[in-house]
Design a protein that fits this description.
By secondary structure, the chain is mainly alpha-helical. Helix 1 crosses helix 6 and helix 4 packs antiparallel against helix 5. It is elongated, with a radius of gyration of 27 Å. It has 10 helices and no strands. It has 2 domains: 45 residues, Homeodomain-like (Arc Repressor Mutant, subunit A); 151 residues, Orthogonal Bundle (Tetracycline Repressor, domain 2). Helix content is 74%, strand content 0%.
Length: 243
């Protein structure tokens, strides 16, 4: 009996979160109250408060349902024992992109997070939660890149922290822009090529020698040497005016 009650409570909680996703997506977070969610779910307001302290608590739980699997991927990526750290970094980035492209629930939640929530008043705690989550993601990517440098997969000239910031911004920006307009590019089709393109740039970073400046001919910097060029330009302008 107790097990059934626990399962029923979990089912009720998940239904509330399911409805919250839909209502937040339709109306935006600021314009949605717990009463709105309770009414849409067919529950009393008290039932909502039984599971969640406030709207921010509900929102955080809604976000956690889709981000916790991604955070697990970040934790695995930072494992120092990985024999191919760059492959782990790539897998983590692709997981986030492909989950967004193929999982409708993930799409709804990320759309709300990116475009339909103002992080003010009671929602500042959600912003803090996002900043914390972003920090863990950055730390994981950075550690994976440091391991890649240590194993010789990247040159020592690569700055792991800056590279991690760039890769995180790549994924974050791709998701945000694709959610605004999925016709912008084919996320599921192009995700791997986009990630590979940027990882290839990291592999090549610092490998090319700085090209030596071209040698100037004797007298190239003198007024006499520059005069023919000016005359040539004037002649060209004259020809254009005649035409």
């Amino acid at each position: 009996m107790a097990r059934r009650t626990k399962e029923e409570a979990l089912a009720t909680r998940n239904r509330i979160l399911d409805i919250a996703e839909r209502v937040f997506s339709e109306r935006g977070v600021a314009r949605t109250s717990l009463d709105d969610i309770a009414q849409a779910a067919g529950f009393t307001r008290g039932a909502i408060y039984w599971h969640f302290q406030n709207k921010a608590d509900l929102f955080s739980a809604m976000l956690a349902r889709v981000t916790l699997p991604l955070e697990d991927a970040v934790a695995r990526m930072a494992d120092d024992d990985r024999t191919d750290p760059l492959a782990s970094v790539k897998h983590c980035l692709l997981t986030a992109l492909l989950k967004t492209a193929t999982d409708p629930q993930c799409q709804r939640v990320f759309e709300v997070v990116c475009h339909k929530c103002e992080y003010v008043d009671e929602m500042t705690v959600v912003r803090d939660r996002y900043v914390e989550m972003r920090g863990r993601c950055l730390d994981g990517i950075e550690r994976g890149l440091r391991n890649a440098v240590r194993r010789g997969a990247l040159l020592p000239t690569v700055n792991p922290r800056l590279a991690a910031v760039g890769l995180h911004a790549l994924v974050d920006g791709l998701i945000s822009n694709w959610l605004i307009d999925p016709r912008y590019f084919a996320l599921a089709r192009d995700a791997e090529r986009l990630v590979d393109l940027h990882l290839a740039g990291l592999r090549q970073s610092g490998s090319a020698r700085k090209a030596a400046p071209p040698r100037r001919a004797p007298g190239a910097g003198t007024r006499a040497a520059r005069r023919p060029a000016r005359l040539s330009a004037r002649a060209a302008a004259t020809r254009r005016s005649i035409r």
